[in-house]
Amino acid sequence: MINSVTERLFFALYPNEMIFSHLSQLSQVITDTQGIMGKIIPPVNWHITLAFLGDINKATKQCLQQVATTVKSDRFDLSLDQLGYWPKTQILWLGASQTPELLTQLVTQLTIALQSCGYHPEKRPFHAHITLIRKANRIKDLPSITPITWSVRDFCLVRSTLTTGGAHYEIITRWALT
């Protein structure tokens, strides 16, 4: 929950309307034909997290926004071609079997820049994925899918507000890729 002192923030890639449409169709097919049940993530919350920041005060937020302007990357295409399931966290996700070099460079640049604002990166390696279902029932065999090609044109700073109905995400700022 946002209070007057901090905001829960993260940097992410957010799909455009065409990608949302493809993701919605895929999500519907998965839940209808595969018998996968759980907490379906609302389409407005679909994203790929680049850096989770946590609860951030106003001064740090300003620093984060300022250093984000120094991050430069060319636009790139991302192929979302793989469904996966993490049994420990019970998450069904859609991701990329191959991470484009430009995405790796974007994450690396952003991570390095954010550290000047006190950001401490996660230890686990970056894995480009969109969470589709939380608390998913155990999944043994996932279907193969038709890849979705996403032309990534920007990255965002996002506010996460936790409510009784779940998380609500709001894009604060976008930075265009060249």
Written account of the structure:
The protein has 178 residues and is of the alpha+beta class. It has helices at residues 17-33, 58-68, 101-115; strands spanning 6-13, 39-40, 48-57, 76-80, 82-86, 91-95, 129-134, 148-152, 154-163, 166-176. The strands form three sheets. It has a four-stranded antiparallel beta sheet with strand order 3-1-9-10, with helices on one face. It has a four-stranded antiparallel beta sheet with strand order 2-7-6-5, with no helix packed on it. A two-stranded antiparallel ribbon has the order 4-8. It is globular. The termini are far apart.
Q: Structurally, how many domains make up the residues?
A: 1
* Approximate shape: globular
Q: How much helix is in the residues? A: 10-25%
Unreliable sequence segments: none
Tally the helices: 3
Radius of gyration: 16 Å
Q: In CATH's first tier, which class applies?
A: Alpha Beta
Number of strands: 10
At CATH's second level, what is the architecture? Alpha-Beta Complex
Sheet of most strands = 4 strands, antiparallel
CATH topology category name: Cyclic Phosphodiesterase, Chain: A
Q: Structural class, please? A: alpha+beta
Mean pLDDT: 91
Termini separation comes to: 34 Å
What share of the residues does DSSP label as strand, in percent? Answer: 35-45%
The succession of helices and strands, N to C, reads EHEEHEEEHEEEE
Tell me the name of the CATH homologous superfamily.
Cyclic phosphodiesterase
Q: Give the strand line-up of the largest sheet.
A: 3-1-9-10
